[in-house]
Design a protein that fits this description.
By secondary structure, the chain is an alpha/beta fold. Helices cover 45% and strands 19% of the residues. Strands 3, 4, 5, 6, 7, 8 and 9 form a seven-stranded mixed beta sheet that branches. It is globular, with a radius of gyration of 20 Å.
Length: 339
Amino acid sequence: MTTECTSIRGRSAGLLVIFVLALQIAGCGQKAEDGPILLKFPHVTAPATPKGQTADRFKQLVEERLQGRVVVEVYPSGQLMDDDDSLDALAFGEVQMIAISLSKLDRLTHKFQIFDLPFLFPDLITVERFQASADGKVLLEAMEDKGLRGLTYWHNGMKQMGAPVPLRTPADAAGLKFRIMESDVLQAQVLQIGGSPQKMALGEVYQALQTGAIDAQENTWSNMYSSKFYEVQKYMTETNHGYLGYLVTVNTSFWDSLPEDIRVELESILREVTEWGNERSETINLEDRQKIVESGISEVVTLTPDELRQWQEAMKPVWTEFEGNIGSSLISAALAARQ
């Protein structure tokens, strides 16, 4: 990144300005003819999580198959930057690839809010069916006007709830301070059950739970285990109420500027590691759920069918609230994937 690129970013004010300028100065990044192409790939989860393992697998295969032509540097656990900063960094060519939580994209387009609607997707099979559909594939292009391109979806898993009390019914969540990601849908979801939503980066959650700054959180088994949330949460309620996934995203200008043979090989490797990682994600989450059970620190609460229906009914109004943003046809396509 040149001084000119950096100074332009420093004068930017507002997200829209940032991405307009990024489109204009995309050429400030590394050129393919400069030597080995560097792909900096930051993410916020631990190496042992589904995303962490898949990112490492991508690095391994790229460096095996494109020896000396492409170097991948993976920065896990927020070592380099958090998700929000990574979007700006990608636009300006400071990093070349990210796998950002779909929930974090609603500041750029409302379309990805579909993945946050509570109880829309009952399991990962339904999620995959939707993502593989024509509507799911079109979403990959939803940020082209911002200079960003989605290449593929990576799973983490289905989300559960952790709290200081067993969350058997929505009434049990009333008054609790819930950590959520930057998502208007997730905020509405918590408000719908009488909780207080607190938007917070993943790396801050453990201490916030430990100190009582927040009471509760939602996440996958793998994230709750790797981030040790179970150590500071007495109960984990198995709700499977939401999907946590990631969009592997690149700067469109950078990606299109790569030599065609390199770009084609990278896309082939991504398809391979996506299939590998998405198959692993369910296994990892089941294993980490069992590790939480065996720890004896946090109790896993299983809901009865009637209790689960109460949660579904309590959160269903969120669909109506965001239908205008997302589009009724997209929600219908997601519902069709259930069959």
